[in-house]
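Task: sequence design from structure.
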């Protein structure tokens, strides 16, 4: 009789332990996915802001493709950024700057670079991404001011 009672208590405790382990593993995976989402978004934003700060002109070539041109003495380097299949791309479809880590499942929903209507040379950069793993979203927004002598206007 004592053996049956002790076995049922032991099974109950093992069940709680298994539940706690599964729950903590899922929580850990969710936390890693959210951290990766934030990290990828911040790294992409830093790269875009750096390109913008070095640019003479920022414009939109066609809908959704943003160009940042830097004038140098011998040529005019060009950085292009756009969204394709939930990834932010730099200059070529073969070089996405987001979505490289499969554990996060980063999907960029929105990306825009627009000039401020009231303040010339002030550009607003906005991005929004979602973790496919957790469904949580993360947004970044910043502004970049080009000096008047750099804007080409």
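Answer:
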């Amino acid at each position: 009789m004592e053996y049956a009672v002790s076995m049922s208590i032991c099974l109950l405790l093992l069940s709680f332990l298994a539940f706690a382990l599964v729950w903590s593993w899922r929580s850990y995976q969710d936390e890693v996915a959210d951290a990766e989402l934030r990290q990828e978004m911040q790294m992409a934003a830093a790269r875009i802001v750096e390109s913008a700060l070095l640019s003479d002109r920022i414009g939109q070539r066609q809908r959704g493709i943003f160009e940042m041109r830097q004038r140098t003495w011998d040529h005019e380097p060009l950085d292009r950024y756009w969204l394709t299949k939930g990834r932010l791309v730099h200059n070529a479809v073969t070089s996405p700057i987001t979505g490289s880590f499969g554990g996060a499942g980063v999907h960029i929903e929105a990306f825009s670079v627009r000039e401020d209507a009231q303040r010339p040379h002030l550009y607003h950069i906005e991005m929004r991404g979602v973790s496919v793993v957790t469904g949580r979203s993360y947004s970044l927004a910043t502004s970049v001011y080009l000096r008047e002598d750099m804007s080409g206007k």
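Residues 2-53 form the longest helix (52 residues).
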